[in-house]
Amino acid sequence: MSETVPEAERTVEFRGVPLGQIETARSRHMWTRSAVHVAEDGDLVVTGTWDGTVTARDVDSLEARWSVDHPDHAVGIASLEGDGDETDGDETDETIIVAGRGETGTIAAYDAGTGDRRWRYDTADDVGEAVKDTVFYLPYVVALETGTDADGNERLYAAARRYERDGETRRWHSTVYAFDADGSVRWTYETDASPIALDLDAAGERLAVGYNRCMGEHDTGLVVLEAGSGDLEWTWDPGTDGDRRVGDVSVDGDSIAVSSHGDKRGYLLGPGGAERWHVDLAVETEIDSETLYAYPNHAYASDGRVAFVTGNTYAVESRETESRHPNEHRVAAFDADGDLVWDDEVRGFVHGLAATGGRLVAPCAQNFRVRDPDTHAVRWFDLESGAGGYERLAGNATAAAVDSGTVAAVEEPVEYHDEGETRGEYALRVGSLE
């Protein structure tokens, strides 16, 4: 990696509103418990909390416009420009889509203005019900993606999965969906692998699906589907041993950026999966007689630039180590030829990268090996230059969204096991990057 870009001064003052109570996080990372989304060209912010409460707030006042109870933990939010009713004459009325993790694994659509539920779909009907009463076994809608097809129709794409284990036998059940705006299922694509990410090309013609855990008949990390029909176009895989494959996918024109959990590299692929280039991100490295690595968890490609974000350090022989991989918790951007343009620290674990156009927003939680509260922050970067800024939070930043200059993040309280002090609160934080 190159010399890092110095961390910018804070340039945004975040406003906040409490989100109620939540179990305090510890040194280790918690499962995804919160979601946030910015809609209506930056004028509406929607939060989803661990208990299923979904609340829409006007950005300027942060006063609630509406609040509803989603059937599951609300773990993902997206929006459609229309409501799917071609006869009502209202082409600008947005629909808020909420993804759930719980008994039903529900995807539900709510009117952006009123919160009235427009439709509901329970993915547990396809992936099956939990066989054990723990979070990891629950049906889980892991990704949502929205876009417009070649005919101008709004579409929603979603990926749901369920895990089960019987002794040494582990299984995944998963379904990728295409919905019309009115909730009608257009097609499904089922596998026995674990999807982790979706991305749609700008023309609405191809849907890229990243699979993280492949331990059954489905044995490929990237699947590209024809978005209108769900037909398989092509596949790609890092070709590594074990069941770990892909961490994230991002489509940019006829290219697809892929972060590989298999070999800890970043790839840029062309049509048909032809490799244009790959880069080492956090590959296995000898440090103090240990072999260390970190997973590249996020990828974002736009206008010929590609950024990758890496996560926590792990040791090959043990999950415990006192050392750190030199490229853990980093963001690195590359040009169309695969040459490094800039890189910087994100310092803490990034649950989910938010991006729009040429801007990246990273909600940074704790670095559980170092346990430094200064890592708790929302950080943003310009994809072209690496310039940006940050706003530190007392607690963990665990979700973020950005649109039209409005940035929103969810803060969760944390108590490190060796401190006994609770830092931060469960709250929504909102600011403007303009």
Automatic annotation (TrEMBL):
Task: Tell me the SUPFAM superfamilies matching this sequence.
Answer: Quinoprotein alcohol dehydrogenase-like
| Pyrrolo-quinoline quinone repeat domain ranges (all copies) | 94-261
Signal peptide positions are none
Pfam families, alphabetically?
PQQ_2
Name the InterPro entries for this protein. Answer: PQQ_b-propeller_rpt, PQQ_rpt_dom, Quinoprotein_ADH-like_sf, WD40/YVTN_repeat-like_dom_sf
Instruction: Classify the source by domain of life.
Output: Archaea
The protein depicted here goes by the name PQQ-binding-like beta-propeller repeat protein
Report the source organism.
Answer: Natrinema soli
